[in-house]
Amino acid sequence: MALSKTAKYYRNNPKARIKHRISSAKAQKKKAAVKKRIECNLWNKKNKNSKKGDKKDCSHKNGKLVLENQKSNRARGGGKKK
Question: Do the Cβ atoms of 67 and 46 come closer than 8 Å?
């Protein structure tokens, strides 16, 4: 599998990679982010349709939790689509 542009960039720029990891870690420590993760983890455990390795994610859509493809859920708000 080929690397994405972002992965190639961070592989070739170690200083940028360190800076990115620090900022990501800071963002994930925020109370809102922790609450969101806990909420999704609990929902995944309780949901019958959610199975390990099914390539699905818990997603916050319109104030509700839904099962969604990992790819489409994680791509939202990321790089520009062509």
Answer: no
Tokens 């990321």 sit at which residue? 78
Alpha-carbon separation of residue 14 from 9, 24, 25 (angstroms): 9, 15, 16
Identify whether the C-beta of residue 69 lies closer than 8 Å to the C-beta of residue 55: yes
Owning domain of residue 69? 32-44+53-82
In a domain, 69, yes or no: yes
Degrees to nearest 5, angle at CA 56 with 58 and 11: 95
Per-residue pLDDT tens over the stretch 23-52 = 999 999 999 999 989 998 899 888 888 888
